[in-house]
# Entry
Amino acid sequence: MSMLNKNYLNTKVYIWLSFFIISLLFVLFPQVDILTSNLFFDGSWFLKRSPVESLFYYSVRPIIILVSITVIAVFIFNLIKKQNILGINRRVFIYIFLTLSLAPGLIVNAGLKVNWDRARPIEIKEFHGTKEFTPAFIISDQDGQSFSSGHVAAAFSLYGLALLAKRRRNLWINLSLGYGFGMCVARMAAGGHFLSDTITSFFIVYITSNLLYYFIIEKK
# Structure
C-alpha cells in the first residue's frame, strides 16, 4: 500500500492507476455509460433545465472570468507597485493562466471535445434520440461533443487554484473538488454527458494541475 501512496510527478500512484484502470473498463464495458445515464432518465432527464442543473451549468463561466480578471488586475498592480498582494508574482500568474487554460481549454475542449464526435446521452437512440452510442476513447462519427466534458473540466480547474492556498488549503481543495463532482452529477442528470465523459475530465484536469504546480511552483 505504501507504493500506491507514493507521488509520481506530484500525483499519487493510485490516481495514475485509477485513471488507467477506469479508462480501460469504459472501453471494455461501454454499457456502464448506458446504465449510469439510465439512472437519471425516466422518459425525460432528471435535472434537465432544473434550477440545480442551471446553477451548475451557468455558474462556472462567470467564476472563471471573475477569477481571471482578478488575477490579471492584481498581477499588474503588484508589478507596477512592487507589491505581493495574494502572492501573485510572475510564476504564480503563469501557473494560474496555464491551470485555467491548458487542461480545460486546450486538451479537453480543443483536443478531445471537437475531434471525438461522440454523441451525448440525450442524442442517442437508447434515450429517444437519433444518434448511435459509441464507447469512450473511441473516435466516433456521430458529430457530437460529449467526450469529454468541458464544463466539468472548467469546474475542476479551480482545484489548481486551491493548491495555492496558504491557509485552510484542505478546505479549499475539498470545496473545489466538491464543486467539480457536483458539476459531474448535474451534467449527467441533464443528459449532457456520460459518466466516462465527466470522470475523464476530472482525471485530466487533476493530474495536469498537479504537474503544473510541481514544475512551476515547487521546482524553482
